[in-house]
Design goal:
heterodimer; A: alpha/beta; 6-stranded mixed beta sheet; B: about 120 residues; mainly alpha
Chain lengths: ~280, ~120
């Protein structure tokens, strides 16, 4: 078991509430997308769960056990972030060996295979790596860690299109072979949206959405046409947001709309996850 | 191999199921042959394994595919006929209704539409 539960978690930095009463459950062996604009609290959330930050109030538990200074809970989490936690004079292969000490399930053969696939020279020192390879060696650590809970905080930072594709495929492959709870925090929503089973969205430290990706996509519609007709149609409906271009308007609506109830001069379409995200977090 | 774009408005598992159906119709996956595993499908198309499983299970329920324990997923005998029958029913809703609606919007007469359809068949 490895279920993460946050109960009314608040984290303050001085006057700023980076997390504001967040309650959410990350269920075992699901792939989550943790989304939010810059400064929404995504990294703070991951850091609170992995005990790198203490919550100001509220509680984080893994399988009912508090994570606060608890080795059992922490041994279950591998947290990949853009931060470098090792001296930059260390070689990649030395970091693999150190990680093996902390994560006994670390798969050295798999790490070496992935390094080869990504074209990463493991004899190189960290300080000699490009931005892309700095992300890549951490991706490899995370995928090889064997931890039942893995956080990816902006995993594809600086990766070219080929390497991003390789990462998503490696992630699905690993997940199929050995399921784990993956929480992926990313700004590149479109390319990750087909992989994510459940979406968690933060806005200004608050949880504003926690739903299955399929439900989110099924529950949002875009209606476009002459502005006055769109306004008339939207009366009494839950509006997420709108785009205006001259006399034309596109309104984003929450809930189900049947094509039959639509006036002739309006067009119905389905916005993708990224468009819905923009409307929800604007 | 299956080709489909995931920009469609339908849920991905339904698009996947339709993509496999298309491959069966085109003969890419003949009856009584094995199709790729759900892992191969989810890795190949970068979709969540749970989604891939849902799409494949839909076709198992419809009798298009069947599972051989420990071996994999196979196309059932009679699958092509089954899919054609189902698609014919959906054809009216998806194409004819939309065609009439668009024709009305553009003020194309019924006679003109029929003429166009006939022309389409000549090509």
């Amino acid at each position: 078991m490895s279920t993460i539960k946050l109960d009314n978690v608040t984290k303050c930095f001085g006057q700023t509430k980076a997390l504001d009463g967040v309650s959410v459950v990350f269920e075992e062996n699901k792939i989550y997308g943790l989304l939010g604009r810059n400064g929404a609290g995504k990294s703070t959330l991951l850091n609170v769960i992995s005990n790198r930050l203490f919550p100001t109030s509220g509680e984080v538990t893994i399988d009912g056990i508090r994570v606060f200074e608890n080795d059992y809970a922490l041994s279950k989490i591998f947290c990949m972030s853009d931060k470098n936690l090792y001296p930059d004079t260390m070689k990649v292969k030395e970091i693999f060996e150190i990680t093996k000490l902390y994560y006994p399930e670390f798969d050295m053969n798999y790490a070496q295979k992935l390094s080869h696939d990504f074209g990463l020279n493991i004899n190189k020192k960290i300080k000699g790596l490009s931005t892309g390879y700095n992300s890549i060696y951490k991706i490899i650590l995370a995928l090889s860690s064997g931890a039942p809970i893995v956080f990816f905080d902006e995993p594809v930072l600086g990766l070219d299109a080929n390497h991003r594709e390789l990462f998503y495929k490696a992630l699905i492959d690993k997940y199929s072979e050995k399921p784990a709870t993956y929480v992926i925090s990313t700004h590149l929503i479109e390319e990750a949206s087909d992989i994510i089973e459940r979406v968690v969205i933060l806005k200004e430290g608050k949880l504003i959405l926690d739903e299955d990706t399929e439900t989110v996509l099924a529950g949002g519609y875009a209606v476009s046409g002459p502005a006055t007709a769109v306004d008339e149609f939207c009366k009494g409906k839950e509006l997420l947001g709108q785009d205006v271009l001259g006399g034309l308007k596109t309104a984003y609506i929450k809930g189900k709309i049947r094509a039959e109830e639509l006036p002739e001069n309006l067009e119905l379409s389905k916005p993708d996850l990224q468009k819905l995200f923009i409307q929800l977090t604007n | 191999m299956m080709t489909f774009n995931f920009d469609d408005e339908k849920p991905i598992y339904i698009q996947l199921a339709e993509g496999i159906e298309d491959a069966v119709l085109s003969g890419a996956f003949p009856e009584e042959t094995q199709i790729p595993s759900t892992t191969e499908i989810s890795v190949g198309y970068k979709i969540n394994p749970a989604t891939a499983l849902k799409g494949v299970n839909l076709l198992v329920e419809n009798g298009v595919l069947y599972k051989k324990r420990g071996v994999g997923m196979f196309v059932a005998t009679g699958a092509v006929e089954k899919i054609r029958e189902k698609r014919k029913q959906a054809f009216f809703d998806a194409y004819v209704k939309a065609l009439v609606l668009e024709a009305q919007k553009l003020k194309i007469t019924k006679e003109d539409v029929i003429g166009m359809i006939e022309k389409g068949f000549l090509k």
